[in-house]
Structure formats: structure tokens, C-alpha cells
DNA sequence: ATATATTACTTGCAAAATACAATTAATGAG
DNA sequence: CTCATTAATTGTATTTTGCAAGTAATATAT
């Protein structure tokens, strides 16, 4: 049988490496987590702080400070919710949108390049496999209880 | 067409989450990077500091300090190389080996559980796909130059 | 062989990231 | 109206990080 962990370890390390080095856009330099935050704000529709923090599994206090930094960098905007005054809705500024988009384009370009080493059939198989994996993982129950 | 980045982002986030929460073995609590370090020391044969640091793409100074911590925790051993006195060879202590093995077993159990949601054919397809991906990524050249 | 460069690793900082506890303010439930 | 809950922030302390500068050993060049 295969050592599945080995395969995943290598895969995620490579992908992590990619992410890591790809976060400077022009004069703007952001960290990996910050790029994840931008990505999620861009993806969700007027999310609250809690929502994003939960999605990327980040402690809310750390997240709060990261958002403060991103606001100072003029990449993120925080708007008080009309419906619930405790809540702040997050959105990207024009510059934030630009940064997020640039990173996204470049990531997809990189992935295209990776996939260019495969034939059409392999490409489709791989894509379908990742979808399968994502589904299987979301179904899984045994996640992350402390060992022993 | 697919949004490949989206697929990868979800996949690696899930896998990262898994890794994150699965690093306490008995009374020993280690961080994600520390578990990666143990994993690589276990895998390679008497590696040097440089070798491991490079494999997991970690700054050597940060790595040096992490090793100091792991030695204090009695998980890692540092032996001066006879061939080159600048070099230290890394190995796991008995306890370190136990921790690494326990984490590995549990990770593979989790992955088995994930794969249990697929049929035999899907399993094989997915495994083959990840191998393909890893190969393609290692072939790729366009990694990680700063954008714009 | 001897000076010089390179390599492996360590320490001195200073900045950034993290998370627990406690706080403020707003909302919901009884 | 009161009390519990929720969203978000701040206080504080720890950990992680990485550049710059250092030490010691090896390799290279003259």
C-alpha cells in the first residue's frame, strides 16, 4: 500500500511554498495568512469578522489584529452592520481587490504551468480527484481529536 | 474551466487543519512545524541541520532555535559529524521516535477514514493523481518569483 | 603553505504572530 | 427588566520569525 501521508505532506508543502513566496504585489508585501484573509473576503459576500476567522480557522483575537494591519495598509475596509451593531462587515478596498486579484491570477498561472506537464486526460483526472478528496474530507468525522 | 486555485486552497486548508490539531501525544505538545521537523528527521538518514531546514524551506536560524527546543524536550539528538566538524547530524530520541510514529499512525488513520468514503476505483485514481501532481510540481520552473 | 573565501551553525536583536483572559457593547431569552 | 450570549477589541505574555553579525571549520587560490 501507499504511504498516503507522505504523498499529502509533499503536496501541501509544495503548495505552501508556492503561496509563501507569491505575496508581494508591486510595493505591497503581505504575509501568507494575510493573503488567505484577502482571498476569503474577496470570495464571500460582505462577511463578518467571525465568518472569515472561522473559515480560515484563526483565533478571533489574532484575526482582529490582522484586520487592523490590513486596514492600515489600505487593503481592507470595515463597515458597521446596520442589522447588528456588534458586527462589522469586511470588504476589500480598490487596492485590496487589486492585490487579491493579482495573487489569484498568478497562482492560477502557476497551476496552469504545473498542469501543462500533463496530458488532457491526466489533467481532468487530477481535477476530478481533488474534488473527490475535498468531498471526502468534508464528510469525514475523525478530524483532529488529540491523540492517545 | 475550473478554478484550480480554489480547489487547492480548500484541499490544503483542510489538510493543514488536520495537521494543526493533531500534534499532542500524551503529555507532549508540539507545534505544526515541530511535527514537520520530526517527520523529516525520521525519514532521512542522519541528516544535517541544513538538509532538514532546506527540505522544509525554513530559515536556518529559526530552524536552529527550533532544534534547541526539541532537544530540550528530549525529542531530538544532535551529534557532531566525524567527517566535517562544522556539521551536526540529527536523529530522534526514543521518545522523539515514539511521538513521530504516533503522529504518523494517526495521520494515516485519518487519511484512511477519508478514503473510506470512496470506492476502490476512486481511491486508486486519487492516489495516482496526487502522484502525478507531485511529479508535475517538481518539474515546474515558474515557482515563486515576486509578482509584477 | 598561507591567505581568502565559503560553508555550517549559533546568537543578538527587533519585529511580527499567536492566544488566553478580561473588557466593552449590543442583542436575545426568560 | 435582568441575565446570558455574542461580536469584537485590548492587555499581556509567549512564541515564532528572520536579518545581521558572529564563530569555527573546511575548501579554494595563489
Automatic annotation (TrEMBL), chains A, B:
Name of this chain's protein: DNA-binding transcriptional regulator, MarR family
**Domain HTH marR-type residue range list:** 4-135
The protein's GO terms of the molecular function aspect are: DNA binding; DNA-binding transcription factor activity
This protein's superkingdom? Bacteria
Its keywords, alphabetically, are:
DNA-binding, Transcription, Transcription regulation
Q: Which InterPro entries match?
A: HTH_MarR-typ (IPR000835), WH-like_DNA-bd_sf (IPR036388), WH_DNA-bd_sf (IPR036390)
Give a single Pfam family match: MarR
Amino acid at each position: 500500500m501507499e504511504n498516503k501521508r507522505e504523498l499529502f505532506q509533499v503536496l501541501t508543502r509544495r503548495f505552501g511554498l508556492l503561496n509563501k513566496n507569491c505575496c508581494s504585489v508591486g510595493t505591497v508585501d503581505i504575509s501568507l495568512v494575510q493573503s488567505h484573509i484577502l482571498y476569503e473576503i474577496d470570495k464571500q459576500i460582505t462577511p463578518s469578522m467571525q465568518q472569515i476567522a472561522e473559515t480560515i480557522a484563526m483565533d478571533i483575537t489574532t484575526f482582529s489584529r490582522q484586520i487592523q494591519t490590513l486596514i492600515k495598509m489600505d487593503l481592507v475596509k470595515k463597515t458597521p452592520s446596520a442589522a447588528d451593531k456588534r458586527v462589522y462587515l469586511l470588504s476589500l478596498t480598490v487596492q485590496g481587490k487589486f492585490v487579491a486579484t493579482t495573487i489569484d491570477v498568478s497562482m492560477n498561472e502557476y497551476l496552469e504551468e504545473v498542469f501543462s506537464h500533463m496530458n488532457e486526460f491526466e489533467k481532468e483526472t487530477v481535477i476530478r480527484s481533488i474534488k473527490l478528496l475535498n468531498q471526502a474530507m468534508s464528510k469525514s468525522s475523525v478530524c483532529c481529536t488529540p491523540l492517545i
